Amino acid sequence: MKKTIKILLIILIVLALIVGGLILVRNKYLPLEYQSEIEVCSKEFNLDPYYVTAVIRTESRFRPAVVSSAGAVGLMQIQPETGEWIAGKLDMDFSADKLTDPAVNIRLGCWYLRFLLDRFDDPIAALAAYNSGQGRVDDWLASDEHSKDGITLDEIPFEETRNYVKKVERFEKLYKWLYPGLEKTDGIVLK
Description:
By secondary structure, the chain is mainly alpha-helical. It folds into two domains: 1-30; 34-178, Lysozyme (Orthogonal Bundle). The chain contains eight helices and no strands. The longest helix has 28 residues, at 2-29. The model is unreliable at 185-191 (pLDDT under 50). Residues 42-148 form the Transglycosylase SLT domain. Keywords: Membrane, Transmembrane, Transmembrane helix. One of its GO terms (biological process) is peptidoglycan metabolic process. Belongs to the transglycosylase Slt family. Pfam families: SLT.
């Protein structure tokens, strides 16, 4: 009897350590910040919040004031010119300093993701365009080497963009597993 209790205690301690370790890893490496902004904007633009969260994690690691070497700003790494263009489409007041505001950045980024998804009709092509630009993706889709049907991107020639798409897909799956409570929509879900 005492041996059974000791074994059960050891099992409980091991399970507690595993759960504690998962929580620590989740909070440190896969945080979920700005959840309400993500859910509101995801719903507004009919996107899956896990997809948006994965893009934010990949782009900025949830750092709202980060600026890339190319000049992209904020959580979803919006170029100031692109932000101004999107804000015009949304009839919003815009100045480049607003890109560090999480609510503004997420709303602009979600609008742009929806725009790209509607434009390309392929989630992989949309993510590739988010990372490397619409013109490049247009060229890839027009090439028999990268697209058999001109709609679906079969091969991404840029390693950086190929890795970017894989990261977003991987983070989306991890966020779904680690944070099962996000409000879901009928939006885009990468498989």
